[in-house]
Design goal:
The protein is mainly alpha-helical and 116 residues long. Helices cover 67% and strands 5% of the residues. The chain has one domain: Arc Repressor Mutant, subunit A. It has a two-stranded antiparallel sheet with strand order 1-2. It is elongated. The protein starts with a helix and ends with a helix.
C-alpha cells in the first residue's frame, strides 16, 4: 500500500514529535482533559518556555490544539489526529501479521515435505 508523499511528511512530523519523552508525557496528560502550559509544566521541572516549545511542536504536527479562553490558552488533544496515527499503525500491524502468517504457512509446508 502506497502512501501519498504529503501524508508521509505528516506522519514523519507526528512520529518525530512523539519520539520525545516529554512530548509523550504531555500527550498522556492531555488524555485526562485540557490543560494550560503552566499546568503541563508542573510535573517536569522545566521552564514555562521549554514546555511552550514542546507544545508548539505538538501543535504544528496536529497532535494538540490550543484555544484562547480570556487570558488562558488551554491545550487539548486532537483525538481525530491520534486516531489517524493509530489507524496507520494498525494497518502496518495487519500487513506484518499477514506476512508472518504466510511465512508460517510456508515453513509448515517445507516441514511437511521433509517428513514425507
Amino acid at each position: 500500500m502506497s502512501v501519498a508523499p504529503e501524508v508521509e511528511v505528516d506522519l514523519d512530523a507526528a512520529f518525530a514529535a512523539l519520539g520525545d519523552r516529554t512530548r509523550r508525557a504531555i500527550i498522556s496528560r492531555l488524555t485526562q482533559g485540557e490543560a494550560t502550559v503552566g499546568e503541563l509544566a508542573e510535573p517536569f521541572g522545566l521552564t514555562h518556555q521549554a514546555i511552550s516549545r514542546h507544545v508548539g511542536i505538538l501543535r504544528r504536527c496536529g497532535l494538540i490544539q490550543q484555544r484562547v479562553d480570556g487570558q488562558r490558552r488551554p491545550c487539548r488533544l486532537d483525538v481525530e489526529r491520534m486516531q489517524e496515527l493509530a489507524g496507520w499503525i494498525t494497518e502496518q500491524q495487519r500487513q506484518w501479521q499477514s506476512r508472518l502468517d504466510s511465512l508460517e504457512d510456508h515453513l509448515a509446508s517445507i516441514q511437511k515435505e521433509r517428513t514425507r
